[in-house]
Write a structure and sequence with these properties.
By secondary structure, the protein is mainly alpha-helical. It contains 15 helices and no strands. 73% of the residues lie in helices and 0% in strands. It is globular, with a radius of gyration of 22 Å.
């Protein structure tokens, strides 16, 4: 067994599910979707947590290589790499699917300001909390001494506070700043790009056929651009998020058109299992069109009610999905704290592969507990506050319209 074996990862996920199923008050305070007519909420909410942990598994291999051989590199096991990148692809598909579905339902008539208010209160609180912890960690690493000019320091902080829409520069000259959060923040600007683009491309959601051909065109363009740039340009020109967004929008359109095979949960689950197997067998590079295709088919089964033999409908899976944003953002800080700051944990991990897996299991459980606490204390209250502010804005706008008339 190696540090990047897939088998132990599956066992850890099983332990996470059992742990979240325990009658602990902390877990019971996390809302679970009750069964009703909307099975999509079941399957998507149940999927997210596993995607987040796939990415955690991938990044854990980076930390293991750092502390064991002092090299910044990921897993040498192709399957672990694929699971992590697949998790990212489907995360992007989930975002575009949900928001494009909303635009289609309202035929593009979405009030933009309330939408941005809600998204800010959804994304910003946990992000800023992580950035605060990152700032403290960096300043601790640099012994609380300012190693750059005050103006450069302010610009660096502002860049991080602006969700990295322009860049994520090293703070106070510490070159490994992004490593402390495992670089996961790079996806945040892509999220905001989607939010900023929606009011513009929303014109294509006014008609279902217009949406269909727009999504098809976008899929073809982004996939070809990804393939072209992969050959001729450096990795920074990564079109994978945009290709994933396009696929998510296409799936949302197809679902609105009711173009979906008449599959029951069992058939859908078999297709999803087949996609996973084919992905692990035939996909060996990142990114490649075949990987996006398998991810798209898998996700289409999910939104059609496929639950992977009931896995995504488990209350434990839904709870893990609810806290997936905190799991995703906080993973780097947790891995850094246990792999770098706590020397005794680091020494324990390096004794043997078995010691590593035991330590990593403990990190996963602690990360899960912290994510649950953050969801209850920070995420949920802030989402409710954002919803309340947005509703007040809409109400005030309506009152002004009535007064004007």
């Amino acid at each position: 067994m190696t540090y990047d074996a897939v088998g132990p990862l599956c066992i850890i996920l099983l332990i996470m599910v059992v742990f979240l199923s325990l009658p602990i008050p902390l877990f019971r305070n996390i809302q679970v979707v009750q069964q009703r007519q909307d099975n999509r909420l079941y399957t998507i909410d149940g999927l997210r947590g596993y995607l987040a942990y796939f990415i955690v598994f991938l990044h854990a291999t980076v930390w293991y290589n750092l502390i064991s051989v002092h090299q910044f590199k990921g897993s040498e096991h192709t399957n672990v790499e694929l699971l992590g990148t697949t998790g990212l692809c489907i995360f992007f598909m989930v975002s575009s699917f949900l928001f494009w579905t909303r635009w289609l339902n309202h035929q593009g008539k979405i009030q933009v300001i309330p939408f941005y208010i809600k998204r800010f209160f959804r994304i910003a609180p946990i992000y800023y909390l992580c950035i605060l912890c990152l700032f403290i960690a960096v300043m601790s690493k640099t012994h609380w001494h300012l190693d750059v000019s005050i103006w450069s320091f302010i610009k660096q902080i502002l860049s991080w506070l602006s969700f990295g829409l322009f860049s994520f520069p090293p703070i106070n000259g510490y070159g490994l700043t992004s490593l402390l959060v495992m670089g996961v923040v790079w996806t945040i600007p892509y999220e905001w790009m989607l939010y900023l683009a929606l009011p513009i491309i929303g014109v294509f959601s006014k008609n279902i056929w217009l949406s269909f051909w727009f999504a098809i065109t976008l899929c073809v363009f982004t996939v070809l651009a990804q393939f072209y740039w992969k050959i001729h340009f450096i990795a920074d020109n990564d079109m994978m998020p945009f290709a994933s967004y396009a696929i998510g929008m296409l799936i949302a359109t197809l679902k609105q058109m009711k173009w979906q095979p008449p599959l029951n949960d069992i058939c859908g689950s078999f297709i999803m299992t087949g996609c996973i197997i084919l992905l692990l067998i035939f996909c060996h590079k990142y990114p490649e069109p075949l990987m996006l295709f398998f991810c798209g088919v898998f996700f289409y089964c999910v939104v059609s009610g496929g639950s992977l033999f009931g896995l995504f409908k488990l209350p434990a899976s839904q709870r893990m999905g609810r806290v997936s944003y905190s799991i995703y953002l906080c993973q780097g800080l947790i891995l850094y704290f246990f792999s770098d700051t706590l020397i005794f944990v680091k020494q324990f991990m390096l004794r043997s592969i078995w010691h590593y897996w035991v330590a990593f299991l403990g990190e996963c459980i602690i990360l899960l507990i912290i994510a649950c606490c953050l969801y209850i204390i920070v995420e949920k209250p802030c989402m409710d506050l954002g919803r309340e502010i947005a509703d007040k804005y809409i109400k005030n706008k309506r009152n002004k319209c009535v007064t004007t008339k």
